[in-house]
Amino acid sequence: MIKDIFEFEKKWEINEMQNNNEEIKTECEAFDKNKLLTHEVRAEADIMMINSLINNWKEIEGITGGAIYINNKIVAYTIADFTMRDTIVVHSERGDRDYKGSYQAINRLFLENNKRDGYKFVNREQDVGDLGLRKAKLSYNPVKFVEKYSGFCTGK
Fold first, then answer.
1. b or e along 14-38 (b: 16 or more beta carbons within 10 Å of the residue's beta carbon)?
2. Could you read off the pLDDT of 112-155 as tens digits, one per residue?
3. What confidence category does residue 109 fall into, taking pLDDT thresholds of 50, 70 and 90?
4. C-alpha distances in angstroms, 89 versus 92, 120, 142?
5. Could you name the domain of life of the organism this protein comes from (predicted)?
6. Where are the beta strands (DSSP E) in 22-145?
7. Mean pLDDT in the chain?
8. For a pLDDT cut of 90, what percent of the chain falls above it?
9. Which domains does the chain show, CATH number per domain?
10. How many CB atoms lie within 10 A of CB 75?
């Protein structure tokens, strides 16, 4: 993972890393639509969650985002919030796979650029069954796993 970040930063000149700019949400939405039209397919629930975050940006307390630009083009973004006292909750990260290391770079740069209020933990949320994401999350040596439960209505 560290190797991917170094390769990314060596190969690409990042001309901007923005945080919580109002333009980010619009560009994130456009980035996602472009990726969906090309080669990345995600679960409908994942797409709905991201759209909900973007569409309700101003109403969600503590929400923030960050994006990496190369040649004035967004190549990675993240959406997170700081609503918990000691924890950053990362809701979504997206990267352009044509820019190897973009996922790792947005992760590192976003956290570096948002060192505030003495957070101790990063909640990376669901891995939605993606083995690559699960492996990446485990590489951070998590201190705790939250038990997950599912409930179903039987209609009775």
1. eeebbebeeebbebbeebbeebeee
2. 887 766 778 888 876 666 777 777 778 778 888 777 777 788 87
3. confident
4. 9, 11, 14
5. Bacteria
6. 63-70, 73-84, 87-95, 121-123
7. 77
8. 0
9. 2-138 (3.40.630.30)
10. 23
8 A C-beta contact, residue 60 and residue 81: yes
d(CA 71, CA 107): 20
User: What six digits make up the tokens of 34?
Assistant: 């472009």
Rg (CA), the chain: 16
- Contact residues for 28 (Cβ-Cβ < 8 A; gap 6+): 50, 54, 65, 67, 74, 77, 79, 94
Number of helices and strands (H, E) in the chain? Answer: 5, 5
